[in-house]
Every structure is written in C-alpha cells, then in structure tokens.
Design a protein that fits this description.
The chain has 181 residues and is an alpha/beta fold. The protein contains six helices and twelve strands. The protein has a single domain, classed as 3-Layer(aba) Sandwich (Rossmann fold).
Amino acid sequence: MTDQTLTGKTIAILATDGFEQVELTKPVEALSAAGAKIVIVSLESGDIQGFDHHDKGDKTSVDITVAEANASAFDGLLLPGGVISPDALRMDEGAVAFVKAFGDAGKPIAAICHGPWTLIDAGLVEGRRITSWPSLKADLANAGAQWVDEEVVVDSGLVTSRSPDDIPAFCKAAIKAFAAA
C-alpha cells in the first residue's frame, strides 16, 4: 500500500512480551506505508518479545510506556494478538485505562486474534459486533458482544479480525477506520 491516507496520523500499538509477531509487524508495515507515524506502547520500556505462535520471534523496541502515554496524543489504537500479551495487558490497570480512553473518545481501535480480550476489560464490547480468535467467543459473548466468524468486522470504528490469515483484510479496514478519524 502506497497511498498516503494516514499522513499526519499517529497510531499507538499497545503490546507487551508475548505478542504475535506478524500481527504487529504486518500492520506496522501497512500503516507506515499509508503514511502513519507508529508509536509502540508497552508496560515497560526497552524491548518486547514477539512470538511466532509458540516459538520466540524477534524483539521490538518500545517507544513509550503506557504510564507515559496519553490517548489524546493518538488518532487510533491497534491491539495485536497472541495469547500472552493481551492477557498481560488486560491485567494491567494502566493498559486497560489507556484502551478505555480511546473508546470513550470515539477513536478507532483495531484488534486482531486475542487482542479483543483487552477490549472486554475496558468495557468496550457490549452491544458491538466483533470477531476474534475462536477461543474468545464465549468471553466476548459473556461481555455482551455479538461474536461472528468473519475475516474482518467493522462496528462504529472498532475493527476486529480472527487470525494472521486475516491480516490483509484487517490492515485495509484499519487504515480506512484510522483515515476517517
């Protein structure tokens, strides 16, 4: 993607150790190619460890900690999946508050795979149509979401996808949502 629809936009990517590597790197490539400035936000400074399913992948440098970050400085938020990172984020009050601030401000959020777990704890799924990795179906339904098994779902600025296989459609929908912000 080479169109510059996101020029002037700053997108936060919230992740910590255990993120699914391709669910961070491929969106970063697509968003950057569309002109966005990307800021990696995490629980601690330094590097975070990516995973390729169960195997360690590459590390990614953190730009700012969630304690230092303010949602008002960003135009959108992306939540990569993997099991470990979203589970750790949903247990961190600061991370949950950061995600909630995007929802409260009506800013677009894109979440893939297990990424929607954090949306549950931020109180942002009730009444929303959402997809995710299939194991989150009951969690999302119990939180009041309408879970569907589709490649990508867009519901009022919330973009969700199921798995790495959905990344092309996820990136396209995320760019469209972020461009509209």
